Amino acid sequence: MIRKHLPRIGHGTQRTWLALLLVIALGLLCACSPSSQEDIADPWSLEEPSLERVGQKAKLRLSQASAEFADLEDRLVFSPKNAQDRLSGEAQCTTSSGRRLKAELPKRPATSSSLASLLPGEFFRTLAMEVENSPEWTCSWRFRVHNDRGSVHSFRLPSQRLKFRDLPMAASQGAESVALQCPTWSAQIDRPTNLQAAIEDLPRTDRIQGVESRHKIRQGICVLIADFENGQRGLVRRHPWVLPPPKIEIQLEATGSYQPSSRPLSEIFRLRVINRETHEVWIEFKKQFQARILGESSNTPGTWLASLHTPIEIQAVTDFESLEFDDRRRVRLAGGSEIQLRMSLKRLMFCPGSLERRIGLMSEGAETWGINWVEHSHPEHAAPLPTRALGPQLEGGKMWSRDPFTKGFVELLNPIAIREGPCADRDPSASGILARSDD
Asked: How crowded is the C-beta side of 431, counted as CA atoms within 13 Å?
């Protein structure tokens, strides 16, 4: 089971022939000087490690260990007299999905370690992608123990079937490191002064390994690992992390109001969308939605006159490139850039009256309209992808208009509405009204 390789110390053998040709003399002198080699043996030995089965409260000599189900907290135990020696080796696992993993173990003191801590950290990126609640892997190890003179003992641990579960994160113990292993990236903090604070800082750390995707997704499920000084490992298989949405400023101006009868109403609201981040952000919005237009009573401010149901289009004030699919439009905002959008009517609407009287907008049914941030690692693909709302959402049944004091875009709570058409469709060249209201 355990093989020992000893270094040999001595002078290398060399045989030197010295030939001297004398022109005057006809003699040839030869000299041979062999060197001897001395073997010096290293008296160091490794006491056979044992495998401590935590569930069975038993220790097995490694030569007696067999391939069977193991617990993540089972421990490989070394004799205290080998504590100054160094342990290295190789781990191999086959995942629940059949994927094969293989990696070298970094050198560590030959002291007791849990099986969970003898798995390379990069293996847990794969664990973060496992969909099973309790994935089961088959893992085996080949170990080497080195002393300070270079002698090596080699041994192996037969295949163990591991069912992954959460392990306690003992905050009272000294943590050597805490790491977040995610499907495309990982982050680690060494020797944290406060374990809980380090866990909270991990998603925001500037130093990561792998592919940076946090600025695109801002949340995810990863594996959280804490390694402690006593060789134990804490593990949380499904650790959620969340960062705030990107800094997208949305300025909405209520531009629609009653117009003189010679000027049709077209624009209701205007939106200015500004990316305050240094990196690009993709946003998404509906191209069109059905809404109800209401007008403020000239006699009683705050009382709303029911009016037309009409489609509202979202149009760009300036041209921009976009991806379109279904009823939505997706736009890339470079870092520090902005776009302006307007909500426009698809029909000519004439609202005689004062410019100070307001126009209200109510989205129909359960439909929702608003600026959404495309929360996905590949937002440039025109396909339905996860999104998160940014700024006000025009939800079904809610009414929005211009604030009478700030001129901003506000939701009107419990508006009083009466059935009277404040605006009408008509042909500007004709004397008759085409439609007063379709309530």
From this structure: 0
